[in-house]
Fold this sequence. Notes:
The structure holds 2 protein chains of 2 kinds. By secondary structure, chain A is mostly helical. Chain A contains 13 helices and 1 strand. The relative contact order of chain A is 0.17. Chain B is mainly α. Helices cover about 70% and strands about 5% of the residues of chain B. Chain B has 26 helices and 5 strands. Chain B has a two-stranded antiparallel ribbon with strand order 1-2. Chain B has a two-stranded antiparallel ribbon with strand order 4-5. In chain B, helix 4 (about 75-100) packs antiparallel against helix 5 and helix 4 runs antiparallel to helix 20 (about 465-485). Classes of the chains: A mainly alpha, B mainly alpha. At the A-B interface, strand 1, helix 4, helix 5, helix 6 and helix 11 of A face helix 16, helix 17, helix 18, helix 22 and strand 3 of B. Strand 1 (about 55) of chain A pairs parallel with strand 3 (about 545-550) of chain B, so a sheet runs across the interface.
Amino acid sequence: MTAHLLVHLLVLLLFAPLLPGVITRTKARFAGRRGAPLLQPYYDLLRLWRKGFVLSRTTTWVFSAGPVVALVVPILAALLLPFGALPAPLSFEGDLILFVYLFALARFFTVAAALDTGSSFEGMGAAREVTFACLAEPTLMFALLVLAKLSGGLSLGTLFGTHLPASWGGAAGPALGLILVCLFVVLLVENSRIPFDDPNTHLELTMIHEVMVLDHSGPAFGMILYGAALKLMVLGSMLVRLALPWNSGVWFLDLLIYLGGLLLLAVLIGVVESIMARLRLVRVPQVLIGTSLVSVFALVLVLR
Amino acid sequence: MEWFVGGLLLLAFSGVPGLFAAREGGGAEKLACLMVCSGAACGTWAVLGVLAAGAPLSLELPWAIPGGALALHVDALAAVFLLPLFLVAATGSLYGLVYWPQRDHPENGRKFRLFYGLIGTGVMLLLSARNSLLFLLAWELMALASFFLITTEEHQSEAREAGFIYLIATHTGTLALFAMFALLEQAAGSLLFPGAGSLALKGGQATAIFLLALFGFGLKAGLVPLHIWLPGAHAAAPSHASALLSGVMIKTGIYGLVRLTSFFAEIPPWWGATLLALGILSGILGVALALAQHDIKRLLAYHSVENIGIIALGLVMALLGRSYGVETLVVLGLAGALLHVANHGLFKSLLFLSAGAVIHATGTREIDRYGGLLKRQPWTGALFLGGAVAISGLPPFNGFISEWLLYLGAFGAAQAKGPGPTAALLVAPALALIGALALACFVKVFGVTFLGAPRSPQAQAAHEAPPLMLAPMLALLLACAWIGLLPQTLAPLLEQAVGLWSAAPGASAGLGAPLAPLGWVSALAWTLLLALCLGVWWLRRRAKGAASAETWGCGFARPSARMQYTASSFADFLVRLLRFGLWSKRHGAEVRGLHPAPQHFASHTPDLVLDGGLRPAFAGTAWLFRRLRSLIQNGLSACYLLYVALTLIVLLLLFSVT
């Protein structure tokens, strides 16, 4: 149990920053550039760790709580989630709700920290973040309902268990396909990726998540970046498991399948970011309501 | 039972000594507070005895009024509602010593304390009544006492209007309850409440009883579209009275529905379906209307509508579980609903009390005039933050536990085979949407009130609340944290209550490990809390001596507090998305051109049912009758003679026919 927990944490903590590196690299390749080294995120984290702070005069302790929650929550949530075929270290009936609500807690404090600076831009980002989250939440819930119905259990371990290959082949295949698409959209929204959010522009007006953390610096900003990478890996794990549900039985091989899947997902995100422009703000709710409807449809397919 | 009755009497007479004391004297208010607190302590002791023994307390006294004995009966189901009442009443009365002192309010302090005690008595009596007549008496006592609490500041027209609407609403509801209890008496053959699951009623009579109860109790609980009286009333009352009204009083409606549905042997599925629609409507519309408010107390009041919706969703699952015979759905749904009743009592009172501390310090209820209060009121801010996290249903506080139970039920319903309670699975996405909107709303309130820079001179000059106001809030927060961190300690209470409600013997299937592993949640909540505290402590230590500068203003050298996002602008995007249900009104012109002229902008959101439906309907009826009166009472003697003649002819015709 303890060894299992340690392996889980090590994989999570060491591998996660590679994903943003892969995404950046893919985008660079698409644009015809060589791009930053794959390990650049690790260097960035190290550099930020050593730096000092600048704190805004308006802020209070809530401002420091934002980065801490953003880092702690993905780690705790990862303990509830199986990594590919590797089972979750902690698993109990109903942990999927805790999983969702842990990320809601992270959102609460990130937004509060943004409002703590008193900047109009950060307020704007905060308002957009909570608005999009309201629209993404029902989609996620419908998707989880479909998975719960198929697996017959209420823990993430069972949801992403060994029944998945059979389900793909059976009558539930189309529903799983729809869910996969919906979860990919949720992943893009939650991790503030194009087409929903643009982490790379220099216009604060067009950013959502990045503008909320504009005033953080030094180790606090490092914690945010690290937390974002962990979140990408944790949410991505769900997609990877759904898309590549094979169990080989050999834990090392399973781990390789899982990590390879994550890298593929990162490349896919990079491709999407390269070939799409950012959606107009008013279009985002329409897309998210659309995915909610698609997930309802998947649920109907499963319940029928 | 002696303890319970003693507590009842102490609460009832707590305000009486003050009536004979001097108008400006402070002694009577301390005595009243002492009596309320000791009454609450007596009551708590009695209720804990009930839970420890696992057997209800009862008392039957002969009664001169026809219709059975004066029967009091305290069981675990009532205990869930009683325990928050005692805590909220006691903390509120302590808080009131500083918030509403006699010397500042000589004209209404004595009245306030008299009815504060009486509403507590009313709720206690109502929750323990076994006799319909006694129940209705207690119901009226509670309704009238709360009317006087709402109109405490009767010199303000807003309070008078809120009180008036409340009075009409509550008595309309009481009328329905009179009819409902009359039908119930016919069916059960006695004014005493029938036992759980003993009423084998079907068809029209059961339907009539259920619909009347849904109207009467729903009006008190504030289910949409019956919530009309709630926002105004809770905003008008003093904060610690709002806490009692919103945290405890409206739950008597839920208690009525829970108790009534327990009588029936069979529950038709459409009862659950009807309540499901009302619950989802209340939850979503309540939180959407809350998002659009600018007044902190109205906002909190609309959140009560939302939370009543969540509680109703739990009851829905229990009802559907009974209809289809799914035991786990009954246990999870009702346990979730009952726990949410207690939870909402705690965190809503905490929020009202801390909002009161903010209003006390700044003298305004407008959220957009606050800002940066965490620096001036660090304790109030931290306590409000705790309440905000709890009401948004986030771990590690108590709101999460009850919502988690409801989710478990809904997901379980999704997995049931056959034509079972599939409707119950709608609860999960509805709860998810409600939860996300509630989070948006509370992060807005907390952020705009306590964070950023002060938006007005009053906020700039705010001061921390005195310890006697903070201590009651701290007690409530600790209760919230206790339920969140050690939920397994409450499982026996909930199991007993569910067992009492459910008809089948031995139905109180354990709420424990296979169904709802509370131990795991508790362990993870502790881990989360410790990790967060440690992390913040470390980061704060590392940040010591950090350079301090102005917030990055994207090129503006001199940012001002007026540039911050306000409560309205924060919610604007969401409110516009929800405009089909809100009908927000926006006044003001767009800013155009390079050198725009000064512009004003204002937005406000009316209550859809009250302002959009009832007021126009009543105004139209009044207009119609005014027209009719001027037509009939036209002052022409000839017409009046014609009326006399017509009446005579009609009477003659009638008599000649018979």
